[in-house]
């Protein structure tokens, strides 16, 4: 189709002008900030330990010695470990960053445990720290991936990640409308991990605060080496507190891999608990002090009664049948078998009150949120929600 001559002349005049404008816009949009150099990866910073450099990596823990990094229960604000993977647990793939006084209130892990799993960009001297590849004397630290030259330009890490903002849409609600609001909150922007990835995740979420080489087993409370994960007698494995068979969701990515109800447990104890519902009473279970069982229910030790209750309540709110999995619910029955229910709700609510969230459980919730699933267990953050929805 031919273009009239008049319009051809107009196009000839305007097209180059438009192209010039567009090029200008693109140049503005893509130009790097004047102060930013290309940031190094953590692997590059580890292999190039000289001069000054800017590095971007995920905060994975608090280094305390050459080969020791705390992944939870942080003890100070003076050092952080960065890695290229936010789930890194191998110290040789980490860069140890000195956090000097100007940056401690914003970048210390004791003050800001929610930094875990978040990207940080830091400029400073690439040199050994704790006799380990490091970065010292920082001149700029920022949350995110772009550097600035001034410590005063740092972003407060708590401003955008506070639990208050997370639950804003639940404010003022109760009962079924609170449950619906929480379901939306904890399923919006969340991510799921594979069943295989659960092994390493549990080594972080359930690390013994007193021994970074061990995990704490849920029902027994025993501290056992992380390296003993497996299926043999004496190993620990992945206990589904909400049994897989109650709804038959298996270990496909979803409820079967949801860290909020997965815990390390001794292989034999895990098998003994099987798919029992929860309720008080029964006979003492041998080898697991404080736990009781009968034909259709299991009573965990006192220190984790509330943990168990909050895990079940989380699952009931998280899984509502609007995805490819069944609608999981807590009910007042024991012996639920394969039905998508876990009881006994009245006992679980009593345990929830009797054993409120402690620092281990709160830290675990935070680590799952910041490092793995991007969602939280509302009943750990807001214990009062339980009675409003299930009472
Ligand atoms: Ca507890
Ligand atoms: Ca449900």
UniProtKB/TrEMBL annotation:
Alphabetical UniProt keywords: Hydrolase, Nuclease, Signal
MF (Gene Ontology): hydrolase activity; nuclease activity
SUPFAM superfamilies named in the record: His-Me finger endonucleases
Highest taxon of the lineage: Bacteria
A UniProt-annotated Pfam family: DUF6359
Record's keyword annotation contains rRNA-binding: no
InterPro entries: Endonuclease-I, His-Me_finger_sf, TAT_signal, YhcR_N
Domain Endonuclease YhcR N-terminal: 40-142
Segment forming the signal sequence: 1-36
PANTHER family noted in UniProt: ENDONUCLEASE-1
Designated name of the protein: Ribonuclease
């Amino acid at each position: 189709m031919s273009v009239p001559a008049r319009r051809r002349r107009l196009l000839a005049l305007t097209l180059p002008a438009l192209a010039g404008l567009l090029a200008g816009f693109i140049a503005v949009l893509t130009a790097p900030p004047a102060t930013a150099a290309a940031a190094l990866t953590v692997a590059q910073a580890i292999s190039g330990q000289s001069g000054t450099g800017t590095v971007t990596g995920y905060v994975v823990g608090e280094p305390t010695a050459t080969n020791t990094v705390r992944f939870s229960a942080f003890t100070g604000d003076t050092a952080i470990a960065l890695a290229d993977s936010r789930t890194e647990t191998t110290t040789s793939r980490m860069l140890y960053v000195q956090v000097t006084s100007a940056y401690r209130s914003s970048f210390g892990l004791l003050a800001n445990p929610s930094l875990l799993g978040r990207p940080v960009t830091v400029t400073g001297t690439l040199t050994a720290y704790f006799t380990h590849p490091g970065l010292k004397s920082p001149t700029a630290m920022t949350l995110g991936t772009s550097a600035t030259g001034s410590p005063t330009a740092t972003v407060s890490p708590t401003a955008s990640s506070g639990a208050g903002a997370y639950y804003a849409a639940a404010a003022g609600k109760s009962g079924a409308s609170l449950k619906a609001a929480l379901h939306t909150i904890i399923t919006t922007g969340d991510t799921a991990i594979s069943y295989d990835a659960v092994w390493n995740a549990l080594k972080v979420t359930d690390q013994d605060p007193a021994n970074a080489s061990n995990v704490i087993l849920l029902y027994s409370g025993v501290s056992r080496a992380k390296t003993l994960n497996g299926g043999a007698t004496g190993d620990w494995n992945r206990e589904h507190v909400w049994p897989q068979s109650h709804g038959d969701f298996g270990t496909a990515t979803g409820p079967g891999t949801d860290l909020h109800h997965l815990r390390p447990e001794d292989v034999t104890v895990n098998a003994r608990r099987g798919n029992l519902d929860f309720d008080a009473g029964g006979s003492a279970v041998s080898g697991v002090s404080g736990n009781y069982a009968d034909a259709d229910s299991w009573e965990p030790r006192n220190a984790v009664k509330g943990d168990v209750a909050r895990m079940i309540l989380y699952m009931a709110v998280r899984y509502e049948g609007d995805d490819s999995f069944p609608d999981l619910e807590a009910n007042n029955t024991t012996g639920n078998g394969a039905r998508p229910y876990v009881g006994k709700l009245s006992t679980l609510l009593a345990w929830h009150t009797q054993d409120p969230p402690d620092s281990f459980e709160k830290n675990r919730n935070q680590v799952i949120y910041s490092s793995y699933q991007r969602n939280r267990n509302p009943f750990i953050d807001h214990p009062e929600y339980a009675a409003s929805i299930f009472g």
